[in-house]
Amino acid sequence: TTTTSSGSSSSSGSSGSSNGVVSAVELNSAKLRALAVAGDMCYITQDYEFWGDPILVWGYEHRAVDVAECCAACHAQRRLWERGGTAQGRNGSACNLWAFCADKDKCKDRLGECWLRRDNQLNPPPALPKARGNNLGWISGAVHENDTHLQQYSNHALVFHTTVGDITMTLLPELAPNSVAELLRAAAWLAPYNGYCQNCRIYRPEKNFLVQGMIEAPGVYVAVPRHPSPPQRMVMEKGLICWAGGSGGPHWFVNMVDQRGFKDDHLCFAKATNESMAVFDKILELPLKNKTKPNDMNGLVESLYYNMTLKKLQQ
To answer: By three-state DSSP, how is residue 254 classified?
Structure first.
């Protein structure tokens, strides 16, 4: 049995989805995505057991199947507290830290323990919460109760760091306020790891049309609801970065030319700098997969992975 980066234990018999069988890894990732779409983001920190006092639910008595279930338990406890359904006293407070023992070999008889805790002095990202040392096998997360910590990033650009150059974009809260807030949350949470975004990648180049990619890492799934949002621009000009498929993420595209006719179909959240458009031009020249049908979408032979950080704009 091995521990996966997405926070669930898997055996050799369930490591893939061949023959229509969904692996434990895929199921856990699907649960995390479903929670994110519902508004319960599960930002994950590997090999840490976040610590807070009081302990609201003791892991010795509370086991979860995977990271997603433990994170969901923290969010559920918060809602119970909001309804006045928790006990009074030191345990009558809302969960903002959870910790799950995920690795069978390292956790042994503690496998599946899910601890729910409260830290009344929880530090906002990029600082990590207090932890009980560097505990291999544990996966933890924090729930921040408001977005006040995002105010420090109001004058920051979002940057995708690729091997062919940095892609810098100005965020557009006037077009997509919820998406911009979620992107800031995600980038702030990735900051302690130098922006490492495990599954963030660019995979589709279409000359004279677009370049497409996605934002996803274990516990980071930017997929806010498409509506309600402010009215979009009737002309999606060159360099405008929008969510694909008429959704709110996590797949995005950059317009390589001015495009008309989409009306209000696509939610646009950023504008690439001129220097970044030159990087997209380089991506358009990367080797492509062979198509099986003439009308198939283009795909890169090797997806271009990137890290995601925030950079302060010059005044």
So the answer is: strand
Alpha carbon 102 to chain centroid, angstroms: 20
Distance, in Å, from the CA atom of 242 to the CA atom of 296, rounded to the nearest integer, reads 21
Confidence class for position 241, pLDDT limits 50, 70, 90: very high
pTM confidence score: 0.81
**32-55 pLDDT per residue, tens:** 877 876 778 888 888 889 998 889
Q: Does residue 250 sit in helix, strand or coil?
A: coil
Give 253's strand partners: 212, 242
Three-state DSSP at 22 gives: coil
Supply the DSSP string of 142-203, one letter for each residue. E--S-SGGGGGGTTEEEEEEETTEEEEEEE-TTT-HHHHHHHHHHHHHHGGGTT--TT-EEE
- The Cα-based distances of 195 to 21, 216, 241 in angstroms read 33, 12, 20
**Local structure of residue 47 (DSSP, 8 states):** T
- Kindly give, in sequence order, each residue whose CB lies less than 8 Å from that of residue 289, ignoring residues fewer than 6 positions away: 298, 299, 300, 301
Sign of the Cα pseudo-torsion (43, 48, 53, 58, in order): positive
Per-residue pLDDT reduced to its tens digit, 194-210 = 999 989 999 999 999 99
What is the enclosing helix (H) or strand (E) of 283? helix 274-283
Q: What's the distance, CA 75 to chain centroid? A: 17
